Amino acid sequence: MMNVDCRKVWNQSKDKLPPHQRMMTETLFKAARSYDICWICGDKEQLFSVIVENDDGEAIAGIICLDCLVIQKNKGTIFVENNPIDR
């Protein structure tokens, strides 16, 4: 398990995300009043620090929960890295 500054990860990654994903995630942050959530569903439990490559081969870091990690893997998303976050 690793400690992660989720806000720092967001600030480093947000410009690399598609606009619709960025807007959705920012809405989740506002609702949760926290950056320590899954960027896909807003869950606060069982978070993972992940790295994926976009279509251009650029590595993008993110924070997602275990459920979303499994769903994305089942959809074919390839994670370069996925490590549980210690909370």
Which stretches are poorly predicted, pLDDT < 50 over at least 5 residues?
Answer: none
Q: Could you say which structural class the secondary elements and strand pairing correspond to? A: alpha+beta
Distance between the amino and carboxyl termini: 9 Å
Q: Would you tell me the overall average pLDDT?
A: 94
Share of helical residues: 25-40%
Count of all domains: 1
Number of strands: 3
- Estimate the global geometry from the Cα principal axes: globular
Order of helices and strands: HHEEHE
- The spatial strand order of the largest sheet comes to 2-1-3
Please report which band the strand proportion falls in: under 5%, 5-15%, 15-25%, 25-35%, 35-45% or over 45%.
15-25%
Per DSSP, the total helix count is 3
The radius of gyration over CA amounts to 12 Å
Assembly state (oligomeric): single chain
- Main beta sheet, described? 3 strands, antiparallel
Structure description:
The protein is built from three helices and three strands. The model has no long low-confidence stretch (mean pLDDT 94). By secondary structure, it is an alpha+beta fold. The protein is globular and about 30 Å long. Strand 1 (47-53) and strand 2 form a beta hairpin. It has one domain. It has a three-stranded antiparallel beta sheet.
